[in-house]
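note to self — DONT lose this again. spent like an hour looking for the file last time. sequence + predicted structure for the chain T wanted, 327 res
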Amino acid sequence: MEPEINLEEAGERLRPARTVSSWEQDAIVKLASAGLKEQRRARRWGIFFKSLGFAYLGLFLIGMMDWNLSTLPDGTRHTAMVEMTGVIADGEIASADNVISGLQAAFEDPRSVAVILKINSPGGSPVQAGYINREITRLRALYPGKPLYAVVTDICASGGVFAAVAADEIYADKASLVGSIGVMMDGFGFVEAMEKLGIERRLKIAGEHKGLLDPFSPEDPFEKAHVQKLLDEIHQQFIEAVRQGRGDRLVDESKIFSGLFWTGEQALEMGLVDGFGSAGYVAREVVGVEGIQDYTYREDVLQRFSRQLGSMLVKPVRELLMQPTVR
C-alpha cells in the first residue's frame, strides 16, 4: 500500500526561499563591515602593544649592555685601569672576585706599564675588601716594576679605603669624600612596641645564644658585649691594614680611625691620599703613558640581570642577619 502524500506539506517544501529585502541586505553588510573594522582595529592595537613590548625589551637590554670600547692597537704600551664601583660585597659588581679578576689581567698583560684602581665606593664587606687588599699586595710583589695607583672619584669610604691603602699611591679630587674607617652593625628593637600592641614573641632555639641580636627579644648584656668585641676586632684589623699601607704618611691617628670622613683636601693633610688628580691625570702626569686600557670585569646581559634579581632577593635577608660592614 503506497503512503499518502500530503500536498500542502509537499508544496511548502518546494516553495522557493523568501527573497531578502534591501534594508535587510544593508543591515547585514553594515554588521559585516563593522565586524571587519573591529577585527582590524584589534589587530592594529595588538601589533602596537607587541611592538611597544619589544621596543621596551630592546631598550632594557641595550641599557644593561656595556658600551665600553676603550681599546688600543695591539702591542701598544698603556696604563691599565680597573674600576671598583659600588658596594663591595659578594654577588655585587664590586665583589672581590670581579675586582681581582680585572687586576690580575691588568698586571699580567706585558703591554701595561702601570695599573690604576679607580674607586667610587661607600664600602661594604670587610672580608671582600680584605681579599682585594691582600691581592693588590701580592700582585705588587709579583710585578715590582709595575706600580698600582688608587684614584678616588666621588667617594672612597671604609671598605674602599681598606682596598686602596694597598696601592703605591692614592689620588683623589679636592671634593672627594675619603675615610669612615670603622665598623658597624645596625638593627632595630621592637620589644616595647610589641608589648604595647599585645604581641607575644615565640622564639624556639637550640643553643643558648642562637637568638643573638633578635630584634623582637630584649637585648642581652652578654650578647651585646660579645658583638662589640667582634666589631672592635674587625676595626683593629682595618686599622692595621691602613697603618701598613700608609706608614708614616699618616698624621693624627686619633681622628683617622674614629669613623669620620673628610674631603680630599683634608685627607691629603691627614696622609690618607698623596695628591689630587683623575685617572687621566695620573696616566698622563704620573705614569707618563696617557693611553688607558680598561680591564674592568664586565658582566654580560644575562649575568647582570641575574645579579640584580638575586640582589633584590638576598638584600632583605642580609639586612635581617645584620652582617658587619666597614662603612
